[in-house]
Target: Ribosomal RNA small subunit methyltransferase G
Amino acid sequence: MNIEQFQTMLSEKGITLSGQQLDQFDTYFHLLVEWNNKMNLTAITDKEEVYLKHFYDSVSAAFYFDFTKPYKLCDVGAGAGFPSIPLKICFPELHVSIVDSLNKRISFLEHLAASLKLENVSFYHDRAETFGQNPVHREKYDVVTARAVARMSVLSELCMPLVKVGGFFVAMKGANGQGETETGEKAVKVLGGKVESITPFLLPIEESERNIIIVSKTKPTPKKYPRKPGTPNKQPIE
Ligand SMILES: C[S@@+](CC[C@H](N)C(=O)[O-])C[C@H]1O[C@@H](n2cnc3c(N)ncnc32)[C@H](O)[C@@H]1O
Model:
């Protein structure tokens, strides 16, 4: 996907990017490739592939969920910033918190956010299992996102405790998203949620399948979740 296609295809979905936002994506691409030479951030470094498989794919969450409001958003396991940094570039009103267990990725993100002059972004080097038990963060977010972190039952335990009652969890999945969500539906319920929608779509150009799963939080998550890493006999809730 070249930059013109990126701009046109987003504009067809109602997301119009200014010159400044396009410059931010350009800087993001260059820093991603530069830092990828010193640390493992992504296997995708070809420019057109980064625009398709990282930038467009991340922003595709906004085709199914309204990110235009000044929501408090937490991105669990964002790695090199996906999906929350592309969403923040497109929707500057968002207040973004990123939690990732790998400190070198957090260092990259801090540098990236400063270079892009992003406001209202915070980074936390932590595991979601402990972050979600911290009263500062527990049930404090309007929306929690996750892309390519864990299968739905495990992911729900990491993400649902962070969502406030009345908020949403947006999971970005590949082709197996539907099956995983059927298996993970019990976990979602135990954790206080309800699966509102599973929407399949094809990534343009290469036509690989994606699924966006939207879960609403209807009641508080029981205190024992998320369980700490190493909890005896810890199995996914299935
Ligand atoms: C496969 S990468 C995906 C990164 C990004 N979301 C994307 O779509 O490219 C998974 C990321 O989740 C982080 N991660 C895995 N388990 C985690 C946990 N329990 N708590 C916080 N971060 C975690 C890893 O450090 C890694 O950066």
The radius of gyration is 17 Å. The chain has one domain: 3-217. The first strand starts at residue 72 and ends at 76.
